[in-house]
Amino acid sequence: MAVRTSRQRFMSRSTLVMVLMCVLGFGLVCIGSLVRVQLVKGAEYRDKAAQNQLHDTVVAAERGVIYDANMTPLAASTSAGKVYVNPSLIGDNEFAREMIVKNLAELLGVSESSVREKCSRTGYKYMVIKDKVEDEDEEKVRNLMKTYFIIKNKDGEERKIYYNYYIGIDPDVKRYYSNPFLASTVLGFINQDYEGAYGIEQKYNAVLTGLPGRIISAKTAGGRNMPVKYENKHDAQPGTGLVLTIDEYIQSYLEKSLEQAYLNTKCDSILGIIMDTKTGAILGMGSRGIGYFDLSDPWGIVREQERLEIEAIEDEAKRREAREKVQYAQWRNPAINDTYEPGSVFKVITAAALLEEGLVPLEERFTCTGNVTAAGSRYNCHKHGGHGSQNLSDAIMNSCNPFFITRGIRLGIDGFNKYFQAFGFLEKTNIDLPAEASSIYYNISKMILANVASASFGQTFQVTPIQMLTAVNAIANGGYLMQPYLVKKQLDAQGAIITETKPTVRRQVISKETSEIMCGFMERVVNEGTGKNAYIAGYRVAGKTGTSEKVPQATASGISKTFWASFACFAPANDAKVSMIVILDNPKGAHGGGAVAAPVAAEVLSSVLEYLNVEPQYTEKELEELKIEVAEVVGKSLSDAQKELDGKRFTVKVKGGGDKVVSQIPAGGQSVPKNGVVILYTSEESKSDKVIMPDLSGLSIRDATQKAAAAGINVNITCNSELSGELLSYKQSVAQGKEIAPGTVVTVYFKSNMGITDYDE
Amino acid sequence: MESKVISTKSGLFKNHVARGGLDTVFLGLVVVLVTIGIIMMFSASYVNASFNVVVKDRNGEAVIENGRVKTNPYFYFEKQAGFAVLGFVALYLISRVKYTFLKKKWVAYFVLGVSFLLLILVLVNPAKIAGKEEFKRWLTLPVIGQFQPSEVAKLGLIMFCAYHMEKNQKKIDTDWRMMLPYLGIIGAMCVLVYKENHLSGTILMFAIGIVMMFLGGVKSWLFIGGAALVAVFVVITIIAPDRVIKLLESYAGDRITAWINKEDFATTLRWQTNQSLYAIGSGGLFGLGIGNSKQKHLYMPEPHNDFVFAIVCEEIGFIGATVILILFALLIWRGFVIAMRASDRFSALLVMGIIIQVGLQVILNIAVVTDTIPNTGISLPFFSYGGTSLVMLLAEMGIVLSVSRYSKITKK
């Protein structure tokens, strides 16, 4: 081998140096690039990487439970699932997309087109297909996720792909309602943004929501958790629980009667509010026509017929408009959000003011001739012939307009406004519900006496139902204007009380003496006057009817006269426990407050007072009409049983051929009116016999009782027994033609149709 | 160092057994780089493989385990380690072979011929690889399996140039036209590789050829002329990219488009480059620690391939990356030393060619991952996953080591 001894190079030095310089130069460029990317712009790229990698999951806090006054949960949240897909993994794999679309649409009950649309957004990694998925459906999706489908790639190679590659489930919460049709506008609902909308849910959204938790975790591009320790958890804080003053039972009584009246009177809307007289706590608040929806489907149209009508609209924009209009009407709470003209109900306010100011001596009499001229204007009384000579008590009982016009102006503009303001009509009641409306009243600085004349019998201004009830309530409770409220307590997650609402007296408006006098006057209205349909045997109800004509509206069929019929009341009159107002908007047919609002109030109040264990105090006459308790005779021999019952003036009917009583209707201990029917069964088979419910409407009490006895059923009469001669039945608790067991007690409602009008016929 | 086993071989074989001591510094650097390379490639590929490499049974059907498709997170590591073993065997054997064995006319023309043959074959019958249907870089041969002909051709070009330039040294010095055959061969190879849709291979081929010509004694005016041409091309690319892009095939044009419009194509053309920058940036000075890369969690496509260095930067930071660059620099410096001390012009050119190839790949790769030049797809020697590349590289290192045995410094 030839070994060179001299250091001879095979490349020129300059060449080597140049190559070396090039390598060194480029090497430095590399280092420079690294410095630029890694150190100079490092933070910027780190942020961008983090934006890519970090996945911020919001864990909704469990929303607070809303309880009724007896701690029955009305609205509660339970955990649910949120099913999502990762469309970026689907990409342009049409087969996979269709498999996912078909399966998820079927399992979750959503439309295929919406799932497909979401699955096609391949730029996204997280598309929620359905939230608030219940456990049952969630389980179905979980089962789907364990299965796979087979796809062929371009080379015809088959590949199994599991659904869990594309589909995932995150935790979610769902709101449940023990009765989705009860107190809907009071409770409100949760909108798509998980915020309370309307009602308590909106007003108390902040406390109900709690603090949502967050999980910040690093995710792979596939949307899965990275196996690195990179998780930052903030636990969710559950929301505050609310205990309402609303009582589920009272609310049910109210809404049941409102629904019935809404259907019977065909009014545009009806509302009712029940208040604890002493505290101002709202025990029940409901409406129909406006303000009634299905809590479990707040966007749905609650009335089937209305829903079908909307769906029948062909033009899409018009259909949507119609739907939205109904939706907003359904969510509205007319007791708080709307105003009405109180009409004659307001006369009790004027009367209380006059008494308090000593402007009308109790014995002062005034002769109503049917019209009066006062403050430069002529006014008619609703009774064209006039009420004749009356004192204040008579005038309230008759709801005489001229009396209140002539006496009202004695207060003067300032005096009238002083009481108008004192009774709370110029301010909001501050009830804990959202969007309370203000009253519509004169510009006080520009008022003239004629305005007072009109206002003193409740016309030419509008107030909210809750304002009117609160004012009447002040008359009932000794003169204290209360702040109405719905939330009694706030509870933490463990159920411990955080805050408890104390009743707030806004001010004393009238003296106790004035209050007592007014209570007596208003009791007379129910016992003898326009409110006699609110009479409840055993309970002393005080009230005032109101009928106000709305501004005439020009319609296709000419000018239509529409009315507000209302009734405000409280009971028992001497020591009021509950106050109530019922307002009907545009009832068809009979439209007087005494004719259509008072019976509703009576129906509700009788149930409520009984529920509240208010001891009935019967008059002698009432006691006579009272029912007799049926003895328990089951197990006794037929002859013994007949002997025992005969003495108490029952009609006894025997069914079956045995000689021993195996069962009886009504059961022992139940009450039946005198001359009622008791059925004794002597064999089991005979129990299957049925009778047909007769039509008991439009009859006097005697006729109805006789007809019922003939049919073999019992009637429970509800009416004002003081005026029995004038009473006619108008409603029965079991529909005509229905098959019922013999001896069943059917409630029949009677009302008077005379002397109850407070409006111009 | 002489092995008894080899010395007992037949006479013909004996003549070709290298005798001198090899350069242990160079060998040590190779071993260190391959070791680090495999570890880092394993770290980078683990997540991708555990997600994408499906284990199949004998019938070719995916194996299901616990309701999930079974994957093999060690797939790339196992294969690369296997190739490394194969490569070191080749390195050892070649380093024992006297380099003069290669200094033969028939060898030079044979490797050139084989190179051209393979480059043409790959265009005629490329192996189809799922997801990379647009490229024609791979060739499937019996026994050897899948490999990249361009890897072979690079060495072929170096060997041919080294031989030819030594033989015609005087002619080259006097007649500039001697450069034409080289230009022709380099040009033809570049066109063939470009047709494979292999822009990086083309650039490397071109650069290696130019360097070989330069080392071989090209007239400097020609070189300056060539450099000027390249400069003009680069300037045109920057000033009027649209024209250049139109001239290029779409795959190459797209990459230049993506390089120029850095704010656009975030989810398409620039996805890989952006993810690379995020990875490098995330690493900072000290890195997140080996195994802790976040960008490898499916953000970075094929983190084991050309962009492995981005994950390296993310995991071991600027300091770690610089250490690796220094190791490469030392390897290149040591290669220069070996070339300078080589006993003849052929071996000097051979070592220079090989070492320049490694250097170019390192520089271009880092320029790509840092978005300094368009994403051409150049692999990082010893780090990027790839059997042909690793085996060829180690074989080339074997050649360098073989030459080092005849280094003058060791012959006192």
By CATH's scheme, which homologous superfamily of the largest domain in chain A applies?
DD-peptidase/beta-lactamase superfamily
CATH class of the largest domain in chain A: Alpha Beta
* Helix count, DSSP H or I runs of 4 or more residues of chain B: 16
Number of domains of chain B: 1
By oligomeric state, this entry counts as heterodimer
Number of strands of chain A: 37
Helix/strand/pairing class of chain A, anyone? alpha+beta
Largest sheet of chain B: 2 strands, antiparallel
Low-confidence stretches of chain B: 1-11
**Cα-atom Rg of chain B, whole angstroms?**
22 Å
State the helicity of chain A in percent bands: 25-40%
> What is the terminal separation of chain B in angstroms?
17 Å
- pLDDT < 50 stretches of chain A: 1-7
What is the 3D shape of chain B?
globular
Q: State which percent range the strand residues of chain A make up.
A: 15-25%
Percent of residues of chain B in helical segments? 55-70%
**In the CATH classification, which architecture of the largest domain in chain A applies?**
3-Layer(aba) Sandwich
* Strand numbers in spatial order across the main sheet of chain B: 1-2
Total domains of chain A = 4
Q: What structural class should be given to the helix and strand makeup of chain B?
A: mainly alpha
